[in-house]
Amino acid sequence: MAGEHSLVLPVGSKDGSVNLLIVALLGEFVQGGLMFGWPSLSGMLKDLKNFNESCTGQEGVCTSQESSLALLWTLGIFTLNCGPVAMGFVLDYLGPKLTGILGVLLNMTALVLFGVSSSSGVNAFIPAAILMGLGNITFHLAQFHISALFPRSRGLIASVFVAGFTGCGIIMYLLMLIFESAGGTRQAYRTIMLSYAGICSLWIPLFAWMMPSHSFRVGMMYLRRKDWTFEVRLRTEFARQYRRTTSLQDFVAASSLHQANGGTRHLGAASGAAGSLVADPASQPGYGFTPAAPGGGLAASRSVADSRTELTGDADHEQATMTGQLPQDISWGPLVFEARRFVELRKKTFSEQFWSTEALGMGIFYTLNVFIMQFYLGTTRLQLSNKGDNGQYTDFANIVVAFAFLTIPIIGWLLDKKGYGITLGTINGLNMASSILQAIPNLQVQVVTIITWMIARFFMYSSYFAIFGNLFGFKNFGKLVAADNIVNSLFGLLQYPLAYAGLHYGFTWINISQAIVLLPLFLFAYFMYTWENADLVPIRPLEGEELEIRHY
Prior knowledge:
Strand order of the largest sheet: 8-10-11-12
Shape: globular
Number of domains: 2
CATH topology of the largest domain: Growth Hormone, Chain: A
Number of strands: 12
CATH superfamily of the largest domain: MFS general substrate transporter like domains
Radius of gyration: 26 Å
Distance between the termini: 24 Å
CATH class of the largest domain: Mainly Alpha
Structural class: alpha+beta
Helix content: 55-70%
CATH architecture of the largest domain: Up-down Bundle
Number of helices: 22
């Protein structure tokens, strides 16, 4: 029977991972993705008569006003996408603490500039939009390394972060409701924006207190002392203790077997098939290895069996028998299997990783999917208005994004159990379906459109950072995300001319074209699926290292 265990931590210390996760998640929801609340923010700017100088006497949509707002959105989402180009390097060299604080300062500055700006007075809307996009992604990037503290649930943790990041858009909707209830005056708007900047500032002392100066890596732990100070330690520094009597009995049996064989022996042996382990005929029940079903990638976090390797030192075994603790030199942890291709990819240099087929394919896949999803976010109000919406469906779109967290179990299951290929194929399929539904003129159908788009967008952001971190590791994470977002952000500049074309010629042909563009990306998802299920090798996810199998 595979025994459960616990780490023996220093006296007066507790695992502080959840404490940091809660603070980071609250920060994501408060300010991680404020730019995603653009429909509500742009609505407030319209109510205050910004950019309406040439709209006098016009009925319906004022194209010059909408074009000005579309430009602000394009600049904001450009810097959000382009931000990792600079901030990825900042994260790698300054660490998450200073990077996170920088993100807070940028968000605060953006809110202040939005609050004091007016198209007929002090007009700082352009720098405000740029700084908000940059601040959002800077804050977001600084926290993803926390997923390394939960190595067997990294897909789930990434989904939780993205739920806060994308769901943050509802904050602007709530601020809009306060703005309307306060009379919709310029003074009320200014007070609201400046007050919210003050709320965001709370994360400066929180990050200075709790966020580590260096990014976490798989195998690290985050401990909280009695005095509420924190320290980072390696998991391998701590003794491990059995929780169940049956596990201790298994260990005693293994120790006796070791002594009977007169020395160090390995309890598992490699079989002929790559990545598959079989039980050593002489090993006791409960120590055999049964390989997981194919799934690779993030699906490699599926537990196969608790590996007990290289039992050495009779004195240590005797002590372990009495105390229930495993000796420090025993390497163990749940065994999982991952494609050799991906294990080797994490060991490569930045240049080798950047030019790999996986990195190039991921770049194209996410550039196209991100662009299409963000285009709909920036034009939601216009597209719904053209279908007869009087504001109700737009409000629904503003609210529903906050409920993306309800799909966390689904995307977590896809990432942690089904792997890269199936996850990417699901995202692409949902985005295609959303684009097709957007082209349907019926207003009632747009409820399904909004929900499908919301799920696709949430899945996309969850998978992007989770797959990048797991596939390439965190050593070059910031630089790889930065390089990938160069093309992503430059391509995103097409948001403005495409929105302009939609204003003048309609959005239907754009929606259909986007669905067609996504079709070939299913091929990349298929290749990722085949790669992750070929030539599997055993690894220990709690240490993040490949397991060396030796014959004795």
